[in-house]
Amino acid sequence: MGSRALLMLTNFNFKTTVSSFGSASNPFFLIKNNLRTRNFSTKTRSSLQPPDLPGLAETARISLAPNEVEEFAPKIGQVIDWFGQLQAVDLDNVEPAIRADTEGDNLREDAPQTFENKEALIASVPSYEEPYIKVPKVLNKE
Amino acid sequence: MLSTIQPPRYLSRFPLRGRTKSRSFHILSSAQPVTKTCFAADQSQILSIRDSLLNRHLSAVELTHSYLDRLKQTEPHINCFLHVSDPDKVLKQAQDIDDKIKRNEEVGPLAGVLVAIKDNICTADMPSTGGSYILEGYRPPFDATAVKRLKDLGAIVVGKTNLDEFGMGSTTEASAFKVTANPWDLSRVPGGSSGGSAASVSARQCVVSLGSDTGGSVRQPASFCGVVGLKPTYGRVSRFGLMAYASSLDVIGCFGSSVADTGILLHAISGHDSLDATSSKREVPDFTSQFTYASSLKSRPLEGLRVGLIRETVDAGVDSGVKSAIEGAAAHLEQLGCVLKEVSLPSFSLGLPAYYILASSESSSNLSRYDGVRYGNQASSDELNGLYEESRAKGFGSEVKMRILMGTYALSAGYYDAYYKRAQQVRTIIRKSFKAALDENDILISPAAPSAAYKIGEKKNDPLAMYAGDIMTVNVNLAGLPALVLPCGFVEGGAVGLPVGLQIIGAAFDEEKLVKVGHIFEQTLEGYNFVPPLVTDVGGASPEL
């Protein structure tokens, strides 16, 4: 069941700009490609450097055990390869959309409001020494 | 055409009004006696409850007891809840409602309605863990706006439901605490990430529930569990109090056992909130105002409605059983008068990698707040970075860690243009293609998932196989559109078959049309019982309405 669903992930290459949506000619692309690339390929599509897991973990402030690095690396590599298929799409002159933009910005007045339940906020802090949230010292790395 | 896989005995035990030509839709009418039927899909449970309470046919306490008993009996099998409210507190709330009614005081439109809330939505008086160890035991200092609105209208929160950690997953197996089972087959997943909320409504442990939908997390479990799931337009419902996963995609959605209930629930939580800058100021219509009594439905009530079946969603890769259920649903729509045609969205399959790039990237940023300093579980360390690294290493599960790492990669200098920016451009393309399709059609339809519920553990070690299941749903989040999923048929599997949901997609802010079409579809669909056998097998508690 899962492997059949993977057929839907097969990449199809846009050789021309995607300018018309829902036009009759495009579906033939899909059919041709589906037949050609029936098996999901895990070859590296991306020409960029593969992810450096320990470096990423440091940036993300998560410490990874060696067995986790071993376990995650191939899975993450596979997914990032799969992301790479977007490289093949012609995206010239397409504006990036930050969000769906179903509506314009709705900013409120920049006026402070008192939050009533401060005790609950403080109660949640694991290490509190009035009036400080306590943390261990900062070690400067070079 | 429409394949009925269930054995006849279930149909006869619940004499569905669907077997006869005329159905009556129970709307407020104190003159009519309340007929004792069980969970028939053609009712609005919310309106029936209101009717019974106001006419003193049933007390809120009796109703609450009935649901709590069923919860207690079904919960050991399905494990929907991470936290169940103290029964005494819940019964006290019910008692307060009964007292008000006795004194002829007004009660809210959701008075006595038991609601379950997904655990990534903050509730001040209950733990809210997001399904993660890092927030084990955390009690938020505020209610999410959606929760506050429900409580103000008289709803009773019965507990917090299980989910994939922080909404990341499609099976509810990625919860730090437990795995929820599908009420239709306990060896199968309920879907995710709002699996607990979907299964809870399916097993009739509560009347309605709230979930969240970032890439299909309300719609896919609705399909897997045979309940109705409604994803609103991005901005329709305030996200304040929803633990952010991907801020440009997240919405809070509704589950119910009928389209009417999800419409009523959505109306209750919708509307502008000054605490959410992305919430729309648009007026919220009464989503159920266009409902027609089934008995007064013309023979072709949806005459002329233009329906587009998305061709890419019934192509290779979709289960044949799902395909035939959707084809059956399409034929049913045609019988109701719809004009059906196939629509092609060529950029459709690009949505999946674009979604995962955007979602991972945004989640890597959103989850950086979980550092063990101001809330949640804190690891011990003698220096600050170590505190962050250890707290997060211990607190997060594997799927969350992987997505944070993927997102960190996609956003890093040198890769941002290649991944994140390109994904945003794909989002523009998808938005435009949906808009073009919805200019030519009133609604679009597709399956909610390429298959029915699969076995627990089946997709656990293969992330891409799991992500592939989201193909039907992610594009809708990228475009910010509303979508309704309602059960339309069954496929083989489990004791009596596994439910399949039809997804109906509408234009932005057009939830009213979705609910109207869904309601008529549901009212006129004959020969199905979408109550899982677990509910009747468990026995004991007699059905209440």
UniProtKB/TrEMBL annotation, chain A:
Subunit of the heterotrimeric GatCAB amidotransferase (AdT) complex, composed of A, B and C subunits. One of its GO terms (biological process) is mitochondrial translation. Its EC number is 6.3.5.-. Belongs to the GatC family. Allows the formation of correctly charged Gln-tRNA(Gln) through the transamidation of misacylated Glu-tRNA(Gln) in chloroplasts and mitochondria. The reaction takes place in the presence of glutamine and ATP through an activated gamma-phospho-Glu-tRNA(Gln). It catalyses: L-glutamyl-tRNA(Gln) + L-glutamine + ATP + H2O = L-glutaminyl-tRNA(Gln) + L-glutamate + ADP + phosphate + H(+). It comes from the Eukaryota. Keywords: ATP-binding, Chloroplast, Ligase, Mitochondrion, Nucleotide-binding, Plastid, Protein biosynthesis. Pfam families: GatC. The keyword Ubl conjugation does not apply. One of its GO terms (molecular function) is ATP binding. This is Glutamyl-tRNA(Gln) amidotransferase subunit C, chloroplastic/mitochondrial. The gene is GATC. It is found in: Mitochondrion; Plastid, Chloroplast. One of its GO terms (cellular component) is mitochondrion. Its main location: mitochondrion. InterPro entries: Asp/Glu-ADT_sf_sub_c, GatC.
Automatic annotation (TrEMBL), chain B:
Transmembrane segments: none annotated. Belongs to the amidase family. GatA subfamily. This protein may be expected to contain an N-terminal transit peptide but none has been predicted. It holds the Pfam family Amidase. Subunit of the heterotrimeric GatCAB amidotransferase (AdT) complex, composed of A, B and C subunits. GO terms for biological process: glutaminyl-tRNAGln biosynthesis via transamidation; mitochondrial translation. It is an enzyme of class 6 (ligase). One of its GO terms (cellular component) is glutamyl-tRNA(Gln) amidotransferase complex. The keyword Ligase applies. The keyword 4Fe-4S does not apply. Residues 62-514 form the Amidase domain. The lineage of its organism: Eukaryota, Viridiplantae, Streptophyta, Embryophyta, Tracheophyta. It is found in: Mitochondrion; Plastid, Chloroplast stroma. It catalyses: L-glutamyl-tRNA(Gln) + L-glutamine + ATP + H2O = L-glutaminyl-tRNA(Gln) + L-glutamate + ADP + phosphate + H(+). InterPro entries: Amidase (IPR000120), Amidase_CS (IPR020556), Amidase_dom (IPR023631), AS_sf (IPR036928), GatA (IPR004412). It comes from Gossypium darwinii (Darwin's cotton). The active site is at 118 (charge relay system), 193 (charge relay system), 217 (acyl-ester intermediate). This is Glutamyl-tRNA(Gln) amidotransferase subunit A, chloroplastic/mitochondrial. GO terms for molecular function: ATP binding; glutaminyl-tRNA synthase (glutamine-hydrolyzing) activity; hydrolase activity, acting on carbon-nitrogen (but not peptide) bonds, in linear amides. Its EC number is 6.3.5.7. It comes from the Eukaryota. Allows the formation of correctly charged Gln-tRNA(Gln) through the transamidation of misacylated Glu-tRNA(Gln) in chloroplasts and mitochondria. The reaction takes place in the presence of glutamine and ATP through an activated gamma-phospho-Glu-tRNA(Gln). Keywords: ATP-binding, Chloroplast, Ligase, Mitochondrion, Nucleotide-binding, Plastid, Protein biosynthesis.
